[in-house]
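# nightly structure sweep
# worker-07 picked up a monomer target from the shared queue
# config: single-sequence mode, recycle default, output format = structure tokens
# input follows
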Amino acid sequence: MSTTAESSAVGTATSLRNLYFVRFGFAIVWAACMFAVGSSLGPVTIGLLVLYPLFDVAAAIVDFRSSKTARPAVGLYFNMALSLLTAIALGVAVTSGIPAVLRIWGFWAITAGIVQLIVAIRRYKLGGQWAMILSGGISTFAGTSFILMAGGPNAMLTAVAGYAVLGGIFFLVSALRLHRVTRQAS
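# output follows
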């Protein structure tokens, strides 16, 4: 690999590391708030539900702008559109109740998980992506469980808070791994 390519890869890894740290922090704070208010669909809960996919849109934009190598544009564009549509759909679904919200969240978790899996596989050579690959795979299973939960008697919004915590942990693991990779490359 040439010096320019190595420098660009390190720059991308550094940007992703920083973004993953921010995503970890957001997921933990968001989950704590959701655990505190998520027992019903009040105004704060609704705001949190819509905020999460909007934050995902913002993170995908930052990711796209900062990634200089292994730029999986199609996956990131798809993720941005999917997350924006999810925010809108959640805004509508809250009028129908918790089961409708869980179905929308579940569909989003499945599709976003598949996109995350594809993007992480394409970035595998950057390092630190195995946690994102695992997270994408788990997201598809979690989404399925949300859809199934929506049809049962125990439909709870706090389940999405647990999902956010697990996703945050995967972002933290990837950030730490990328930190190690960038230190070794420097």
